[in-house]
Each structure stands twice: as structure tokens, then as C-alpha cells.
Amino acid sequence: MANLPVNKAAHPFDKARFEAVLNRRFFYAPAFEIYGGVAGLYDYGPPGSSLQSNIISEWRKHFIVEEHMLEVDTTIMTPAPVFETSGHVARFADWMVKDLKNGEVLRADHLVKNVLEARLAGDKEARGLAAQPVKEDDKKKKKKDKAKPTAVKLSDEQVVEYETILAQLDNYSGPELGELCKKYNIRNPDTDNEVSEPVQFNLMFASSIGPTGQHPGFLRPETAQGHFLNFSRLLEFNNGRVPFASAQIGRSFRNEISPRAGLLRVREFTMAEIEHYVDPEDKKHERFAEVRDVELDLLDRDTQAAGSTKLTRMKIGDAVDKGIVANETLGYFLARIHQFLIKIGINPTRLRFRQHMGNEMAHYATDCWDAEIQNSYGWTECVGCADRAAYDLTVHMAKTGHPLVVRQALKEPIITEKLVAEFNKKNFGKTFGKDSAVIQTIIGGMDEALLAKLQGELAQGSATITSSDGREFKLTPDLLTIEKKTFKQSVREFTPNVIEPSFGLGRILYVLLEHSFWSREQDVERGVLSLPAVVAPTKVLIVPLSAKAEFDPLVREVSSKLRKAGIFSRVDDSNTSIGKRYARNDELGTPYGLTLDFASVQNRTMTLRERDTTGQLIGEIDEVIAAVTELVNGTIDWAEACRRLPAYDGVQAVE
Amino acid sequence: MANLPVNKAAHPFDKARFEAVLNRRFFYAPAFEIYGGVAGLYDYGPPGSSLQSNIISEWRKHFIVEEHMLEVDTTIMTPAPVFETSGHVARFADWMVKDLKNGEVLRADHLVKNVLEARLAGDKEARGLAAQPVKEDDKKKKKKDKAKPTAVKLSDEQVVEYETILAQLDNYSGPELGELCKKYNIRNPDTDNEVSEPVQFNLMFASSIGPTGQHPGFLRPETAQGHFLNFSRLLEFNNGRVPFASAQIGRSFRNEISPRAGLLRVREFTMAEIEHYVDPEDKKHERFAEVRDVELDLLDRDTQAAGSTKLTRMKIGDAVDKGIVANETLGYFLARIHQFLIKIGINPTRLRFRQHMGNEMAHYATDCWDAEIQNSYGWTECVGCADRAAYDLTVHMAKTGHPLVVRQALKEPIITEKLVAEFNKKNFGKTFGKDSAVIQTIIGGMDEALLAKLQGELAQGSATITSSDGREFKLTPDLLTIEKKTFKQSVREFTPNVIEPSFGLGRILYVLLEHSFWSREQDVERGVLSLPAVVAPTKVLIVPLSAKAEFDPLVREVSSKLRKAGIFSRVDDSNTSIGKRYARNDELGTPYGLTLDFASVQNRTMTLRERDTTGQLIGEIDEVIAAVTELVNGTIDWAEACRRLPAYDGVQAVE
């Protein structure tokens, strides 16, 4: 079924109404609201929780079940040595600046972005170009960190300079951001005070484990390390073979400097992460052919470096062939991420894949693409897909000594021949005494060519070698022999590389809600959330015309038949009009409604309402249940349902 | 289907083998194992994660879906003021003692328990009674905190004294535990050193929120506060009506003093909590009749106070009628908890409900019962079911001023008549000047009887009242009138009470594994986990006889048909014998196996193997899929499957 049968383009997105609906229907709300709240912490209410758990369930099917991934569930609390080794203690940080007078703390890159964007908007206004929407938007949101645009015209060179800086913003280091602030006189927009030099702030929440505080610990900022530390167990579980993937869904924490974009930048969030382990010499993917023709909108590194954000639409197969995407496995996951996001209802025209620039990449990554989704805050990273190479497994192995490697039996053992020196220890000791070890070390360090030369000289009677301190030693055939030996290697040992798709579920949930929201022309006050049935919190609403007892047996029958068909339904027998009950469920994203009225009791008929069109059909109870079951399971669409069941024309009378 | 078709009683529980299986099959393992681990933190591997997620999924169906609970998902990180109000900062603590010489920290109640139990065991040994198992057990486990029993005979009085203390152990306060240590010379069993007075240690992990450390915070030790803070939103979502329940599944954290019992005492754990809000004046439950006849093994407060642990088997209906269980709602949940635990495979003969004693109860509870499950560590609390009364909502409302109350329209308004004094302000001021306020306050504070007396005196001309400093004032009818007035109350406002069933999912998972484990007589080295299909990590194993390509289409066909039937299967095409593959899956708890051999390719037949009996049936592929689908869904049992399909007698040949 098409996700959006209604042309939503005709209904411009109204953020204030949207936020009012999410709040009124308790999709989510600031945590500890009655205590005044804390920035960056949100609670999900019943529809938000259901939506999240349906997204997770679909994610499990799409990735874990489909690809036989090994699921793990590891702890959030992590002892400090793990993150010291992984590099997070030293480098998992953002640059922040302080307002030099009032001490307010700001994220340096956000400050530069906001001020330069405001100046560009002010310039447009001064030039009499479409600056109006910016101002209005700004007024409505009253976002504290938004610099107010004032109508000041910039030089044409300045405009180009600012635009280039903004296109490359993610690529600046902290000191470079500091220089930008000085060069362009960037100040705290709230106070117009100067700001300090940028300093690093580590984003991990710290705590300590145990009653005597003996174990410093951190809350994980990603689930990944929990996978890596269990690598050798997982490999054994997979019978020692790569490639395979582990997967984990769970909470992570980042102590953001000043989180302000609702669910898009929070201090506690649910992630879903895959760590796919591959042979570094073979990053092909056996199912790549299945996705080769999937088309993606790409924004690669070079385009950004040239100061542009122009998208290139391309088949993933071509992108890999051309080397734009580094390898098949990375490409396979980009396509699968795309398919997943479309399936749950993300608007494909507002989805792009952006490659990280050099300085932007996390310390562990060698290549990285973000699935970015456009929404009212701009383009937001919702999924990262990084090639972490062998970084993590290598550092943990070096630190702990535990072998985090794959041992692979070679089909054909590798046979090599090498010259080897064998010493006559007795004669050697007699001749050189305590210098023996020095001489043997020198010979042990010789490459094939030097050994061949030595072998030749010995065949002619004697050879002379010189130690690093300049002493010369004469070697004769009674002291050593140099001969070809055959070596057979039957096992190859390697540290696998890791491709990591990492999903921020809260961000996906939020942009999905934005993409699904619109209002009916005839009733703009009431919102509709056109969530696909697969993720909708409730699939079917059962609406008895009145709370009269004579409806009870029918309500129970319909509920129970839906439950048997595996369809999650709810009954709304509240004491309001049917129209109000439907309107409430349009805001909750419930795709189908079943109405039981007095005709149902007499004739065993029932009406079926579709949320987006508000079209209604009528039929015998079991027929309607069969149709709605197929609609929810996606095996028929609404057009097909309309062919099966007659239209019900009592719509206006009821609503 | 009977959970355990095999008589497991014939196979004594072998803990060493059990632990080896859990470790070998990566059900779970110490977190950060390659870094040496940290006590009380565990990671779940693939079968553990699946088992946990199946338990959660069944929990959702049994509680949330069945009772239309409102699911929420709230943050773990919590600002300090919330837990200051809830009482956790002051009181969520355990008593710990320090070894006075080496500084080792011990939990006071555990120390007393271990030392006294060891002395009782030593006494039994000295008397020549069954002390042997204790010693052996002790040796095998090498648990650091287990005091070693030595064969010292105690007096009969001492034995009774120790046993009484142990039966009431949970009821001692910290100072009382300190007195017990002194009185009975209880020392650190590892060092024989004396220990300090018990001091309180708060079990919450502390952190701070934001870049300047301005918001101290804690990791939640339970999910409950997240429900309560959202109460008014949830109530509104439920159209303002009680009773209703919120539910949440999520991580919580407790910084245990010295966790040592595997998954039974951990520092980070997944809980499932229900907060059921009821009218304090009506704790009946509308579905109580459905569970009235469920029989539970109860251990009430009075029995424990009398120093006994004898169980009473009783219908929950009778227990509520007799006042042993405080009310229907509490009783309803005890029965539903019982049903849930049995359904997922807990052995009902090892499940009891123990009532908390007075001092043991959490600071917020008015009555509390624990579902305790017997396992190799003893009886372990796995579910708590507390009546928290109005405690939490009341304190948060008092602190924040936000109304956490239910406003209920009364069917019949309550009409009351009261005497009310009305003052003639002008005359009053003229007569009494600045004393007016004092006099009016005195009259305003009068109860109905005093007002009636005053009314009578005024009717006779005048009255005299005396202020607290002894001055007398004369009142006359021109100054005030006292008359009956009618008051109408049409809304009742109240703070609901909360009944809280709270599940420790890791504990349930662990005891379920213990209850499910046994070994076959013919092969004691190999374990079997008789997990019910409903929670088994994998339901069906597909075993192609060899990895030959000719099996591929059949394997794909069977996998795909099972997936369509909603059955989670795995293929094991590893390069080992079928017997070994089945043995591996017996240890993973996979209830059914489907074998594809050369006959399958020729005749389209397939064999079906049942894990516990190792019985095998044979049939046409679609017949076998139909049978295994019904077996997994629980609509037929193995006996019925044996009636439908002929036995396969090639068992020995294949295995």
C-alpha cells in the first residue's frame, strides 16, 4: 500500500500544531517536567513507546532475523580502562566556549553556524530576498541559541566566504573554530559578549562502581564496545567463521553541552547497532547483487570540500564500482538502511547519504556515511555507517593480551622456502665466548640477500661480519651452516575489520512523526499522523456507537478475532461522538477504524474507515475482519479493499 | 503441553555442568571479562538475549496487552531532587561493615547469615548429621563470602537461637545487626578479623548532568519514579479514569556492596514494572473472579515472626477473604504473577509468595509480597508486589505543587449543611477596632457544637468569648449572625493508591535456566535445557544431512514456510555429525529439530525430533511443518503429534 495516499504537499507542515499534537497525545514529553525538566532528557508516553517498540521490532526483522545476526545485550556501566583503551576518554569530546561575562556554555560549532546563518539571512533581508520565512520561524520557536538575523547587507565576497565555511563546518578543529570566532567577531548572540577559546569537554557521564569508589566508570556513549569485548565468544558461537554480525539495541548516554533540538539531541537515547566483522582482504558481500540497483542520493566528501551540498542520485552498485563508496559491504548496508527507513515511512525525497570529511570522522573510522533526513531543524544524521577497520579489536587485544583474531584454515597451505642459519653452539661458544649472542643476533636479523652472500662466502672458506660498535668477527664453516628450508603455513590469522551501521532510534522516530504529520483542509485544528500500519501504535480502533450493554458481545467478538489474527486493536468506548473518537485516533496514527452500530447488532455488519482518506466501507463482520487483517499485513491496499467491499455512505451522518 | 515430559527428578541438578553449559553456549558471561571483569556486571550472548527478549515479549502479552496497560519509556538518568523527594537519597541504602584490619567491605546482613549458617552446618557435622553436602558444595563453589563450616557442636539453645535469628533476618535494623555481630562474635570469615559497626551505604550510582556539573543526578534504582512523575499525563490519556496501570520495561542500577551470586545480585539489570493506580477506598479488582481459585504457597508475616518458614497452600480468594493478603488488587496480581511464571517454565513446586516483615518493607510500602523462587542459592526474590499506598504521588505533589490527583464526578452530589458565621464588618470594626481579626479567627475556628452554642446565646441577646490572652469580648446580634447553609460537593478529589508488581527479569531468567537444566543418563556430559517453546531462543532447528548443494532448495523451502507460519528457526549446516548438532541444540534449549536427508530430496519427507524425549517422527514435508507449527504454538502436545505422524526408527542409525 502506498504510504501516503493523500497528497500531503498540499498541506504545508505546521510545526506549532505538530508539537501541540505530540504533546496532547503524549507521544513524548520532557522528563521530570513537574520538577522543571532537564534539557536533553525525554520520556515516551504510551503512543511514543508503542511506536518505538514497533520500529525496534521491524528493525529486528529487517536486520537481525533476515541476516542471522547474533544479538547481544551488554552493560551500560563500563569501567574506565575500556574507554581509555578505545580512545573515548581522550577524544570523545566536543569543543565548547564560554561567554566571557556570564559564563554561559555554548557548543563552538553550533555558535559559528548560528551566527553566520543569521548574518546570511540578514543579508538576504537587506537585499530584499526571501528572508521573511526565517524571521517568522525564529519568532515562533523562540529558540535561545538562534541568533536573530538583522537586515545588514554583506559584501558578495563575505557571502561566498560564509557559505563555504558553513558547507565545511564539520571539518574544523577546535582551535580553527576559535580562529573563526576571532576573525569574524562571533559573539554569544544572547548577550553580545565575547567568548573564550574553545576547550574540549568529554561527553561521557562519569560515575564510580563499588562502595569504596575504587572503580571509576562511565556510561557507554555507544553500544559498540560491548560487542567488541565479546568478540572471541561471538566468533566461537559462529563456529569460528567470518563474516558475521552482532547486533544490539539499548540505551546510551552523551552528556551534551547544551541540547536544544527536542528528540534530535538528547543526553540519553536508544540505539540499535550492528557490528559486521569481515576479512580485511575481502569486503565483498554475498548478497550485494540483491541491492545493486537500489538508488541513493549521495553527497560525497569531494562535493562538500568544494563548498557544495548538491546531491548525486546513483545506484549503489555504480557507487561501489566507481570507488565513491569504499566497498561492497559498506554499500550493502547503505542500501539496506535506505530500504528500512522507507519501509517504516520516511519520505524518500528527504533522505540523503552524506560522507564524512577527513577531520569530521570519529577517531576509529576509515570511511563513514551518514543517512541524513531532512526535517524542520535541517538535515539530521539518523544513521551512521562507518568502516571502523580493525581499530577497536586491535587496541583491546594490545591492551589485554586476549586474542581478538580469526584463525582461518587455508585451503592450500602456503609453502615457502627460506635460507636459515644453524649454529654449532659448542664451537661458537668456544670461539666467541660472551660475544656469541651478539653475533647470532646480527645473523638472525639478516634478510634473504645477506644470508645468500654469507652462504657464498662461507662456501669459499670464511666470512667477516662487523658489529654495531665496529668490531669484526671472522666466521668459518665449522661455526655455522646456511641452508634452504621449507616452511608450511596452514592457518591464516587476522584481525577482522568492522563495518558499523548505527541507528539513533529517537531521531528516526522524531523525523518519522514530522514526515507523517498533516492537517485536513476542512479541519486544520485537527492533525493526522499518516504512520504506516507496520509501525502505527494501534492498528485498528474498535468504536461501538454507544456504551450500551448490547454492544458488549460484538465488541468482544471483534477484539478476540483480531487478536487471533495477530492484529493489535483498542476499543474506544468513551462517552464522546464517533467523529471525536476518530479525530483523536487520527492524531494517534491509528490507520483503521471499525464501527459497530445498531445495524451491526441486527445484521452483523460493520463499517471500516481508512484514516488518510476517511473513506468508509461496509460488510459482514467476518469479511471486514479479513479485509482489515490483509490491509494491516500489507497484502492488499485500500484500493483493493474498496473493490472487495461496498462503500458506506452514512459517513457524514455519523461524523 | 506439559513443560517437562521427562522426569527430571531422576537427574540431580549438577551445578558445575550447568554453569559450564551456560558459559560454553554464551547465555551470558561476566562483562569486560577480557579486562578482568567487574563484580555484578554481566553481558548476555545470543541465546541469553533471545531468551530475555522472549520472556519480555510474553510479559508484554500477559500483562500489557491483556490488561490494556499504558506503556511508558522514561529516562534512567534522574536529577537528584526527584530522589530526594522520593526518599531514596536518605533511605535507599544497605548496611555495610568493614573488616577492621584489611578494610574489606561486607554487607552486614549477609555476613550474619553466612556465619550463623556455617555454625549450624558445623554443628550438624559434629552431631554426625547430613553436613556432608554443605562441605562439598562449599569446596566446589569456592565462594569467597561463604564461611567455612567447622565441626563444632552448639548447645541446643544456641541452635534454636540461631535458627530464629535466620528466620527473621530481614527484619533487623543496622544497629541491631551490629549488636548481633558483637553478641555472637561474628567476624569476617576470610580473615577472622573483627568488623566495624554497620554504616549505611546508598545504593544509587551518582553522576552529574551538564558541562558545568550543575545538576547532580542518579541512575534510577527502579523505573517507578518515571511512571509517577508522568501520572497526570497518563491519567489524561486514560480519559481521567482510574483504575488503570502504566507499565515499563527497562534498565535500572544498584551499586551493590559486594555482589556475588551471578545473575541474582547484579549492579545493572532489566526490570519490568507495573504501577496500577486504584481508588484508595475501593481496591476491588473487576477480574478478581477469574483468578479466585488459583492456589499459591504463602509464607505470611506472622509465620516468619514465629521463627518458621512453613508454607500454607491456599486459594488466593480465601487469602484475601481472610485478610492475609490485604486486598483484591494485590491478590489479583499475585495470582497473575504466579500464572506468568508457570507459563514461561518456572517449576511451581519451587515457587512461594513471602510477605515482608515490618522493618523489611521499603520506606514507601504498606504491604508487600515477594514471589520467591528456589534455586541452588536458596530462595530468591524474583518479583516484588507492593502496595505503595499514596506515598509517592503525595510527596511529589507536595514538593512540586503539581496536582497528582484524580478528580471524579460524583454520581450523586454530596449535600451537607453547616453553621456559618457571617460578620457585619462595619459594626465589627467600629466595636473592636484592631481586635476584629483576632475575634473573627476565634469564631472561624469553632466547630459545629460551639457555633450552635454561640447561636443560642446570641438569640438570647449576647455572648462572651475569651481570647487566648484572657481578654473578654461581648458579642451582640448586630455584629454577626450564625445560620445553617447548604453545601453541595459534586467532584471528589483523591490521590490514588499504587499497587506495584516489579519483576527482576535477570533473576527470573537465571532460575528458569536452573529449573530447565538436566543431563541425559546415557550422556551426562551433555546438558539439556528443557525450556518451553514459548521462550526458547530458537524454536526449530533445521538440519540438512550434509552441506551438499542438492539440499539447498529444500532448506530454503522449509525455512521460508516456517517464517510464514511465524516460527523462528535456524539452519545448522555445520560440518559435524547430526548427533553433535542435536546435542548442541539441546544445550541451547531448541525444542524441535527437522532433519533433511537424501530421502527428503527423493520423497519429500522429513523427520521431526523432540528435544526432551529425543523421539523422532516422519512425514511429508508440509504435514511435518503443520505439526511443528502447532507444537510451537502450544495447540497440540507431543503425544498428539505422535498420533498424527508415524515414528521414525532410524534414530540410532543417524545419531
Automatic annotation (TrEMBL), chains A, B:
Keywords: Aminoacyl-tRNA synthetase, ATP-binding, Cytoplasm, Ligase, Nucleotide-binding, Protein biosynthesis, Transferase. Homodimer. GO terms for cellular component: mitochondrion. It catalyses: 2 ATP + H(+) = P(1),P(4)-bis(5'-adenosyl) tetraphosphate + diphosphate. Residues 129-150 are annotated as: Disordered. Its EC number is 6.1.1.14. It is an enzyme of class 6 (ligase). Its main location: cytoplasm. The keyword Nucleotide-binding applies. One of its GO terms (biological process) is mitochondrial glycyl-tRNA aminoacylation. PANTHER family: GLYCINE--TRNA LIGASE, GLYCYL-TRNA SYNTHETASE/DNA POLYMERASE SUBUNIT GAMMA-2. It is found in: Cytoplasm. Residues 176-544 form the Aminoacyl-transfer RNA synthetases class-II family profile domain. It comes from Lentinus tigrinus ALCF2SS1-6. One of its GO terms (molecular function) is glycine-tRNA ligase activity. InterPro entries: aa-tRNA-synt_IIb (IPR002314), aa-tRNA-synth_II (IPR006195), aa-tRNA-synth_II/BPL/LPL (IPR045864), Anticodon-bd (IPR004154), Anticodon-bd_dom_sf (IPR036621), Gly-tRNA_synthase/POLG2 (IPR027031), GlyRS-like_core (IPR033731), tRNA-synt_gly (IPR002315). Pfam families: HGTP_anticodon (PF03129), tRNA-synt_2b (PF00587). This is glycine--tRNA ligase. Belongs to the class-II aminoacyl-tRNA synthetase family.
